[in-house]
Design brief:
This protein has 382 residues and is an alpha/beta fold. 37% of the residues lie in helices and 20% in strands.
Length: 382
Amino acid sequence: MGKIYTAMGLMSGTSLDGVDVSIIKSDGNKEFSSILDRYFEYDKDLIQKILILRQKITVPEHLDKYLDEINDLERKITLFHADAIKKTLEMSKSLVDLIGFHGQTIFHDPEKKITKQLGDGKLLSQLTKKKVVYNFRQKDLENGGQGAPLTPIFHNVLANKINKKFNLGFPLNFLNIGGISNITFTADWKKWELKVNDINAYDIGPGNCMIDEWIRKNSKKKYDKDGLIAQSGMTDKLILNQALENFEENSTYTKSLDIKDFDIFFAKGLSLENGASTITNFTATLIANGMKHANRMRQSIIYKWLVCGGGRKNKYLLEGIKNSFEKISIEPIDQYEIDGDFVESQAFGYLAIRSFLKLPISFPSTTGCKEPSTGGVLVENF
């Protein structure tokens, strides 16, 4: 076991609801423990500004065209994160060695090797008087990867931690339903070496992004809590089937996905409830198709999945996924003493430590990069 570091991970995902903050301890390898998790909600004005800017930026040239707006919003988001850090540190007596700062993604284009997360690492370091690791995805893109998903190496840490206590056996498989859905196949520490592709991961479809967008545009709510709105509606099967036929499915599952890859236009004209039901079943079908692809790739039927991310709370969505299989176990990771709301913020604390130690955070079997590569930019601006 190497030196144990205390890191803070910050994650603001595609749901645009706020910032998850986690303090963890780890050696950047097998050792991991969670110290504190907190959530800080964005105010409505900030959410609206992020939404508007994200919709404007559809091609790389827009990053220059809207540079003033980007810089202004980046500063506001960084200040929000700094305040969240201050409040979290007041709750904890932990002395944090470094901060993993993901930022707010507004543009991601792996083919052109461009990704933009709003978040000024230098400013955050200056404000917090801490070492900050940020811009986690760019090096992976430069190394031929998709820049995502980055959490699989941390999923593997959790799988081994869970298995040690609950003896579930391997492989343990993760289904992460955030804005986008992705899956991770984990490996036993006893057999795993970083040089082999035992950890396998890829994006499989939308997660909450389409459902959240529909709810936001057609009601005063931010999301469909527990899937109750969708559950109260009726799925328009004709529209659903047409949408599935028209959707160019990611059959190779080698491309990272962005929320801009998905459009809710096909549900236009439906009521709030019926639209939510139809879009949720569209999402469930694409997720299930990705899981079936995993079965084909593994040449075996995978029955047990641990679910993390906000989508694990959408009972109607999970039921839709289960209905695509004769036999399957989909369990929230919370049942194994892991808070499913904070897996990604904990992950970026862990990734910050690995980046600091110059250990790889992405692998050919997770992002498609040419070789295992570290990532992130370390700044110490105080």
